[in-house]
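Problem: given the chain below (165 residues), write out its structure.
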Amino acid sequence: MSIDVNNESGTEVDEQAILDIARYALARMRIHPLSELSVIVLDADAMEQLHVQWMDLPGPTDVMSFPMDELRPPAKDEEEAPQGLLGDIVLCPEVALRQGKESPTEHSMDEELQLLTVHGVLHLLGYDHEEPDEKAEMFGLQAAIVDGWRAENGLTGPSPAPTVS
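Solution.
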């Protein structure tokens, strides 16, 4: 799996954890090991520009996903998805910090960025949360992936509650 993490935010973030949880999520979703993903970490001003440009919404957001090859998880009877370019996930640590503090399970900026990374991966794989049934499926899968990664890495305490906007 080729995953690039590029921090352009000026904020120190745990890039290794972002890389590790993205790799874990893609493996859990059985995405081809030669697929490619880019994760970009931006400051609030740059994120706001993207949010306005692509979503026509004001202010910075927490995470945005820009799919490339529109890869999807393989069907249950298939071993793995085809190889391809997943696309880009863009994260904003300033928004992640605020959301982590405001969450019912108050948690760190880095824990929120890990959750947002999984959220972005799922969006790249075609998951959405516009409808209640879609939201239940996506957020359930997101929690299972985050919990699995945290358990595998010996991390204790409550997993971050979904705070994605």
